[in-house]
Write a structure and sequence with these properties.
Number of domains of chain B: 3
CATH class of the largest domain in chain B: Mainly Alpha
Largest sheet of chain A: none
CATH architecture of the largest domain in chain B: Orthogonal Bundle
Oligomer: heterodimer
Strand order of the largest sheet of chain B: 1-2-3-8
Radius of gyration of chain B: 29 Å
Largest sheet of chain B: 4 strands, antiparallel
Order of helices and strands of chain A: HHHHHHHHHHHHHHH
Radius of gyration of chain A: 29 Å
Largest interface: A-B, 52 and 53 residues
CATH topology of the largest domain in chain B: MetI-like fold
Number of helices of chain A: 15
Structural class of chain A: mainly alpha
Distance between the termini of chain B: 38 Å
């Protein structure tokens, strides 16, 4: 301790002078452009080509949809303008595109059904919402019954019965998608469990069903439902013309959902199964309480992607004479009263925007869910 | 251990508490109910078909179909049988699917790689393409191409003329017909010779490079041979190949080959739609290749293009191929949307016209499903073989 003075102290006694704050490391706009757009001569050439392409496409789109479009006036204004979209056409056909020929006085029933559905779906998909089990219960059990009562009508409840031939437009598209998801999830889970079963007969039946349905186009399944189902059953049991494609869509999406669920089941570590069995938990309780909650959570993004596919596939029901949203657009666009040079393009543009908004929204949800799940696994 | 459990089980009576017995019981129950359902449906179907006068046999197969098909790749006319109509449909489905697979794959690879480009605008344009196309139903895209792009083209009389005798109108794209004169065989022969030379050169260049590291100018020499050989022979044999320019007679063109708008719309729609999915698969596959591989290639002095071609893509292919297979199958199945725009594919001809004319719904649907299942099976097998070829060889 005494020889401390012989050595200079190891630790500096005086404070070091403060350093200057670091220079801004973020590149300025010029650096950014140089680095991301003009790094090499070939990159610069590509940049010029693609900027021109992007500007041209955007200009085409904007000039058709906004700048040169007809916003007010009637069919004559549209006929006189071959360069822009005809939005009055969409405005007039809007209700037809939403409800089809559903009676005007009863359309509140469609609105109510869709509102309840939207609330339940938001409740179900919003991960921080309280009591999501109740929401699932309501959506998968109560909602189909309520929707059936509201949309079709029950004379006892003073709701006149609306024949399904009058249904159409977005109503059908949403109905098809909701029926698809409500039935395909439980059936998909059953098929996936069956496919992983130890019982060879059960496994064979499930594998055959899944692979056959996944191996054929949806159109052929629709054709089968439409032409063959009436042959399979006695005349008095012949399903309604709207019910047949609904059955087809439920079966078709079940097979795809089964593969999604199977991926989730396979991703659950074997230890979970073994621990449950070691505790003497029965097969059904093990699946219900331990495996499926984990498996289904992992595959939420894939379930949403499957649902997007299902939503897009509902357009095909037009082939068996069901007037879904796209078919309604097709019918509206050939209306001789509105014949004009840009009616078709306007109809397709509007349909494209609607489908795109739905699908893009869902895919964004699926991506955010994926990130959330990935974070959950990291921590 | 096993002896013990066996003896315990054998002593137990046959009851539902025994797991094995329970399993057998459930399976018998399932088999029984399926059998009952099948029998019930079968009996009901046969009686329904009898009652409605629908044929129960495949006898319609050899009957005359009586309708014409405007785009047949194999000989067919209105007097041909339903069986021949079926084969026209199968060939058309396969033809459009194969072409669309080629186009979609090229498009998908280009866009997928472009999405990872260092160039901001290239990546953004590629991303927009994928995000727009993937989120719009294929049917809407097909209808758009057909009804909003190809159908509003001018009538044959006021066709858009492209230099070289090519005409574009609302009945399709009409290109000059190739006519062969004596001596054309020599040109074909010289082309074949050029291809053989190119393959030989490629093998030789590879051996030279492996032995000495020297690279031979394979590409330029091959191109020169492929173009030069047939051209020289063409001139030497006195120009034995001529083109018949399509001529406008009345309301339509005569002579020349016609590319129908139904076919073109289906081809464009399928390629653009599936291309966006393939782009995502390619991007995922490339991103899954560890970054160290690229860095190592740069450290060895490989330029970016060669790094991508020789180092990254071959490794990414292993990840890409399985989902790519399912996209190919999806595309083939999606080609059935042809029925909406009137391209005569299997579903349109067979499950549409033939089913309506004969009424034999069960037989026709069974055959149609069998064809698609067979295509699925063959493609899966082929791609599995391809996959095995590309799989990592474990040491």
């Amino acid at each position: 301790m005494t020889d401390q003075s012989l050595h200079p102290p190891i630790v500096n006694v005086a404070l070091m002078p403060a350093m200057a704050p670091p220079a801004d490391v973020r590149p300025g706009p010029v650096t950014w452009i140089k680095r991301n757009l003009f790094s090499t001569p070939s990159s610069a050439a590509l940049t010029i080509c693609f900027v021109l392409l992007a500007v041209w496409l955007l200009h085409q789109f904007l000039s058709f949809a906004v700048i040169k479009a007809v916003w007010s006036g009637g069919r004559d204004a549209c006929r006189a303008n071959p360069e822009g979209a005809c939005w009055p056409f969409i405005a007039e056909k809007f209700d037809y595109l939403r409800y089809g020929a559903y009676p005007v006085s009863e359309r509140w029933r469609v609105d109510l059904t869709q509102t309840i559905g939207a609330i339940l779906i938001v409740w179900l998909l919003w991960t921080r919402a309280p009591r999501r089990k109740l929401a699932a219960m309501l959506f998968f059990v109560f909602y189909p019954v309520a929707a059936f009562v509201l949309l079709r009508g029950v004379a006892l409840l003073h709701l006149p019965v609306i024949d399904t031939t009058l249904w159409g437009g977005l109503l059908i598209t949403l109905l098809m998608s909701i029926v698809g998801i409500v039935f395909s999830l439980p059936f998909g889970v059953i098929l996936a469990l069956g496919r992983r079963s130890d019982l060879p007969m059960v496994k064979a039946v499930c594998v055959t069903f899944i692979e056959v349905v996944r191996g054929v186009p949806f159109i052929t399944v629709l054709f089968m439902a439409n032409f063959m189902m009436p042959l399979f059953v006695p005349d008095y049991l012949t399903p309604d013309r709207l019910l047949r494609p609904l059955i087809a869509i439920a079966l078709f999406s079940s097979a795809y959902m089964a593969e999604v669920v199977r991926a989730g089941l396979q991703a659950i570590p074997k230890g979970q199964y073994e621990a449950a069995k070691a505790l003497g938990i029965s097969y059904f309780d093990m699946m219900r309480l331990i495996v499926l909650p984990q498996a289904l959570t992992i595959v939420i993004p894939s379930i949403v992607s499957t649902f997007i596919g299902l939503f897009k596939d509902t357009t095909l029901v037009a082939i068996v004479g069901i007037a879904d949203f796209l078919k309604a657009v097709e019918t509206a666009r050939v209306d001789p009263n509105w014949a004009g040079p840009t009616i078709s393009s306007t109809g397709y543009l509007f349909a494209g925007l609607v489908y795109w908004a739905f699908c893009f929204g869902m895919s964004r949800y699926s991506q955010s869910m994926e990130r959330q799940l990935a974070r959950g696994h990291k921590s | 251990m096993s002896d013990l459990s066996l003896s315990v089980q054998s002593r137990r009576s046959i009851s539902l508490h025994n797991k094995k017995v329970r399993g057998i019981f459930y399976q018998l129950l399932l088999a029984g109910s399926l059998l009952a359902l099948g029998l019930g449906v079968g009996v009901q179907t046969v009686s329904n078909m009898r009652a409605r006068g629908i044929p129960l046999s495949f006898g319609f197969w050899n009957e005359s179909a009586g309708f014409d098909i405007n785009q047949a790749l194999i000989p067919y006319d209105a007097l041909s049988t339903y069986g021949q109509a079926f084969w026209v449909g199968v060939v058309n489905t396969l033809f459009v699917s194969l072409l669309a697979i080629l186009l979609a794959t090229s498009l998908g690879f280009v866009v997928g790689i472009a999405r990872l480009s260092q160039n901001w605008i290239v990546a953004k344009v590629a991303t927009s393409y994928v995000e727009i196309i993937r989120n719009i139903p294929l049917l809407l895209q097909l209808l758009f191409w057909y009804n909003a792009v190809l159908k509003p083209l001018p009538a044959p009389k006021s066709s858009i003329e492209i230099p070289g005798g090519v005409y574009l109108n609302n009945r399709g794209l009409i290109i000059p017909e190739v006519q062969l004169h004596p001596g054309a065989g020599l040109v074909a022969l010289s082309s074949a010779a050029a291809i053989v030379c190119c393959i030989a050169l490629w093998f030789y260049a590879r051996r030279v490079q492996i032995r000495t590291g020297r690279q031979l100018p394979v590409l330029s020499v091959s191109l020169a041979a492929l173009i030069g050989f047939p051209l020289l022979m063409f001139l030497a044999a006195g120009e034995p190949v001529s083109f018949i320019r399509p001529q406008l007679h009345g309301f339509n063109f005569q002579g020349g080959h016609q590319l129908y708008p139904e076919f073109a719309a289906l081809l464009i729609g399928l390629s653009v739609y599936t291309g966006s999915y393939i782009a995502e698969i390619v991007r995922g596959g490339i991103q899954a290749v560890p970054k160290g591989q690229t860095e190592a290639a740069y450290a060895l002095g490989l330029p970016p293009g060669k790094t991508l071609r020789l180092v990254v893509v071959p490794q990414a292919l292993r990840i890409i191929i399985p989902p790519l297979t399912s996209q190919y199958l999806n595309l083939t199945k999606n080609s059935s949307l042809a029925v909406f725009i009137g391209y005569p594919d299997l579903v349109q001809i067979f499950a549409g016209t033939v089913l309506n004319q004969t009424g034999a719904a069960v037989q026709v649907m069974a055959i149609t499903l069998a064809v698609y299942l067979a295509i699925s099976l063959v493609t899966s097998l082929a791609m599995n073989g391809f996959n095995r070829h590309f799989a990592i060889v474990e040491r």
